[in-house]
## 1
Amino acid sequence: MVPTLTAVGIDASDLPVSVRDTASGALQRVGEGRNQISLYVCGITPYDATHLGHAATYLLFDELQRVCRDAGISVRYVQNVTDVDDPLLERAAATGEEWTGLASREIDLFRADMAALRILAPAEYVGAVEAIPDIAAAVGRLRDDGAAYDVDGDLYFSVSSSADFGEVSHLSPAEMVTIFGERGGDPARTGKKDPLDCLLWQAVRPGEPSWETDLGAGRPGWHIECAAIAMRHLGDTIDIQGGGEDLVFPHHEMSAAQASVLNGGERFAGVYLHQAMVGYDGEKMSKSKGNLVLVSTLREAGVDPMAIRLALLDHHHATAWEWNDAEIDGATTRLAAWREAFARETAPSAEILVAELRASLREGLNTPESLKAVDTWCRSEGEDATAPEKARTAVDALLGIE
């Protein structure tokens, strides 16, 4: 349960909440004049444990929830789990494990990591497998509308059917083709109308899982999975679509284009919000590269999860950065200083600290500035006996630090 600042006598604030929209590159207000927004965040493909790049992404949307709640805006948050996909099947085949068992185990570990980091859970986790009826129905509608076509039994989305295609990433066609090939696409497949057309429904393959639908036996493509789940649970248009920066293209571009065809031409998301890449050993941290720092490994080594959280919060979500082991040392020292300051009998007024936290977080989710504000308060002296409890509650509510 997230504490509220009004519960400890701190007034609410009408300062608006703004986040950086990837599509426009500008800060954009969210939830203005409303008491609820919808949020869809792309979840994991569960074939390996949670690394710090994952953790940074889900921490970003945890912070968004906390800031919105403090502003009186509830968040209807849905997150998918891609529990059937090529990487999962390939890992299962390589290890000899049943793919469903691998997925189940890694989903459980992911949720344990998120709970340890005090990441607020979405209202709904939705697996691709359970959503297959919704996905198949969406693919059927695209086919019936002329936005999908057959290639040797597989169904492909025609990107030319969407007037909005390209408005999320703003990449050139040549850039799109290159990145598409690097991130799971098949631009060179014979029979496609456009190299960028993407798979909607893959016909059954020997030895692979499949499901019987009106489309025939098969399984869904990745991009339509998220479009169908988001529209099923949040509506034809949503307020925020989120994930890691590597999802801007092709995943979010393709999902947005498919959703806009399905909803009659409306822009799918009001805002596209992304976490920049976290590197390690000179490269983006990723499962495919194997250069992972795992949350579970740090936890097993005795690292306080709140120190992990602080280390991640010390980097702005819009700026790429590289992890090094000193991050934990610095965060552990900071955490100890904060806890010592919150344990004092008196301290400086907490209201100024709360105002600074709200200002930095509500304008672009600037977590590094918010940490500096807490540091300054902790180093200061004061005679307010109510301040330690108020400040502790504010740091818990807004930054998730226990």
Note: The radius of gyration is 22 Å.
## 2
Amino acid sequence: MSFALTIPRPLAHLPTASDAIRLFTPNWFAANMGTGILALLLGQFDSLPLLHGGGFVLWAANSVVFSLFALLFAGRWLWHFDGARRMLGHPVMSMSLGCIPMALATIANGFLIFGIDVFGPIAIGIVQVLWWLEIALAVGCGLAVPVLMMTRHDHRAEEMTGVWLLPIVAAEVAAVTGALLLPHLPAADQPGVLLVSFILWSFSVPPALGLVALLFIRMILHKLPQANMAASCWLALGPIATGALGLLLLGEAAPAALIGTNLAPFPDVIAGACLLLSVLLWGYGVWWMGLAALITARYFTNHVPFNLGWWAYVFPLGVQTLTTFRLARIWDSFALGAFGVSLAVALILIWTVVASRTIAGAWRGTLFAAPCLADR
């Protein structure tokens, strides 16, 4: 008796392979976000070569996949312009445009953690170019998509979900990149980059927190979204955790960046204020994380269909985990460190499930869908 392993042909569920371009949507970049944040987390463990090396492999693979996605997205605009343009009018797919600069941020930040050892000082120049591109995309999404929501989309309060946050959060992610880049820059450039990073943080965090409050009220008044949007409740953790991480990093970088400037007498004040606000945001994130976990447990008492939205379980939790480890180091807290380890283990397990199902769905072609074309 013999057994043969049957592997389905690539994109078997699509009429033609070229439909992968026609149906490519920006929410695919959420896979880069989730994989990238796990790579960055593993890259923090310099003393554990296996984990650090695993982070490098993930970052390198994620960079290749990001490049592929960028080509597919550009191809859609080049060869299927009308369909790509219709995406801007879709109330959900247009929100996913914010995933692109956030995915790019994980690639840029990886150059600072892994790329310097591989490419040398040229990695810093690469990050600077990527950071300004990230800023342009993040600010563009943060302004253009809300205008589209106000002028072209049909939104209702009872249909609001966490995806509304995606175009807004991108700017604070760019602020984190700026903070990580600061120590690698010449002293003369650091004050300007610090200022831009603080502005990016404020460009995003206040409106995002306002939307989080509205989302909480919406879920009380209109109950939970339908099952195919189950993961969206985790998206609110994103701006909270990223806001906390950004302040931690900016507070650490500020004293050195402000030497020789008019603010030189106040670095301790700025650093202390950043630390305090970061702790408060982190605590808020712990509350929302607990709420989201309970909501998720309720969803999974029934069937929850898999889709690319499941990557919302990964990136926000990853940022909260990074912030937890950073706070544990600053406070020299064993309890925070242990909590961070538990979050990291959960993150790895969740990423494994979501990544494996995404790879399978991408291979078969079942995950390629463009709701903006459904009415054609």
Note: The mean pLDDT is 95.
## 3
Amino acid sequence: MPTQANNSEAIVYLNGRLLPASQARLAIFDAGVVMGATVTEMTRTFGRQPFRLQEHLDRLFRSLRYVRFALGESKEDLARISHEVAAHNAALLPEWGELGLIQFVTAGEVSAYAGFAPTADRPAAGCTVCVHTFPLGWHLWAEKMRRGAHLVTPSVRHVPPQCVDPKIKYRSRMHYYLAEQEAKLVDPAASALLLDLDGNVTETSAANFLFVERGTIVSPTTRNTLPGVSRAVVIELAAQLGIGFVERDSQTYHVINADEAFLTSTPYCLMPVTRINGIPIGDGKPGPIFRRLLDAWSQLVGVDIERQILEGASEKRPPTGK
């Protein structure tokens, strides 16, 4: 149980214990630090309740199986812990606040860096398991929600699926970091849209990328991209709205000539993209299919998502429903 004597501090679950966030520590020789050997998930709350938590945990456990991390916690354990951490920490938020809820698992301590070799008396440590939260930063997305994001295709390429399968969500992300630095040399407000080795568009460091061509949503293939939970929501909503959805390889040429484009990601759900490499997409404004999808998503969760971001960025209380 938490050692918090003070219920005004956020808590963190770390390796079997609930701790005040100020007391949570990761060893410097943890594999997540030494090798970036970490798989992770992020869920967000609506009305202080995690959205699509089960889908995120399902993907986490598929990733864990693929990378061969053995946990002591079950999926049900992590769901219960996640709800407990979120409920405690959400109570500390201002009225307009919502949480990002993170689960991450590393391969545990690297014995050679820790200064000992595993023996029968001192076996190798198990996985590091952590659940924590952070307040969603509305100010980070407000201006892009109004005007649209600018994406830049850097020289840094996406990691080929022959190296790491993109269906796992992992934190070994130096290529994303380098790509972001390069994009910001073009525009400090831009994000990087990575190409694969064949020049096909893939994804950004934090979002799936989609564009619209003659009324149909076009997605990069999941051979090269993470099958995002938010992307899956778009597929569901598009079907309900009678909007076509296809997966195919596409190049920057297709994006430049698209009718509109947008990103989909857990924290902000949908974000319009209005420029690529400095060139306007469509009329350079958030498009009608983006608007229809965002309205449908807002109805799904009972929160006006755009208003929540815009008013939350101004520290106004966003509406609780539509």
Note: The mean pLDDT is 92.
